[in-house]
């Protein structure tokens, strides 16, 4: 995830500093299209709405694949790899000599590699959902009650049983 953020920030800086603003904006649009759906799926999961979680997750998968594995490479990368050389001759020479263009394109291709990796993880989660009947976030820690909230709740329950309903705080009753 850190690599993704470093690449994205570098792409944005390169796009703004080198007047590749359309491409930088397009990168943002393509990446933000599926993010809100993933957040909605996580919220419905936390609200224990399993059917809604599944529906939102499958819509997220379709949007993810269409934006990051179809639109990103076939529109954005095609433009930066091939269409840029269809302009007039002085521009082609300038682009071929420009180190910023080469770095920018390398960063775009690195981002595409990360998209393939994350698509594998998304598809793996969907496969596990089909097998086990529940969508689980395979990136995060387990939710088996070892969270901080569960520890606090256990402490409150233990104190309420022994202190006649009064919750002790810092051993003060």
TrEMBL record:
Keywords: Acyltransferase, Membrane, Transferase, Transmembrane, Transmembrane helix. One of its GO terms (biological process) is ceramide biosynthetic process. Residues 139-173 are annotated as: Disordered. Its EC number is 2.3.1.291. PROSITE patterns: TLC. GO terms for molecular function: sphingosine N-acyltransferase activity. The keyword Transferase applies. Residues 1-131 form the TLC domain. It is an enzyme of class 2 (transferase). This is CERS5_6. It comes from Mytilus coruscus (Sea mussel).
């Amino acid at each position: 995830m850190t690599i993704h953020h470093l690449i994205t920030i570098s792409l944005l800086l390169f796009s703004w500093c080198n007047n590749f603003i359309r491409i930088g904006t397009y990168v943002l649009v393509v990446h933000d299209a599926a993010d809100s759906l993933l957040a909605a799926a996580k919220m419905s999961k936390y609200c224990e709405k399993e059917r809604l979680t599944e529906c939102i997750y499958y819509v997220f998968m379709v949007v993810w694949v269409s934006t990051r594995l179809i639109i990103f490479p076939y529109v954005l990368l095609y433009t930066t790899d091939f269409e840029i050389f269809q302009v007039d001759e002085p521009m082609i020479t300038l682009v071929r000599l420009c180190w910023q263009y080469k770095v920018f394109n390398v960063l775009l291709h690195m981002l595409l590699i990360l998209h393939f990796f994350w698509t594998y993880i998304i598809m793996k989660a969907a496969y596990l959902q089909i097998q086990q009947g529940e969508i689980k976030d395979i990136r995060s820690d387990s939710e088996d009650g070892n969270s901080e909230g569960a520890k606090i709740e256990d402490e409150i329950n233990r104190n309420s049983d022994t202190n006649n309903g009064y919750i002790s705080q810092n051993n003060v009753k």
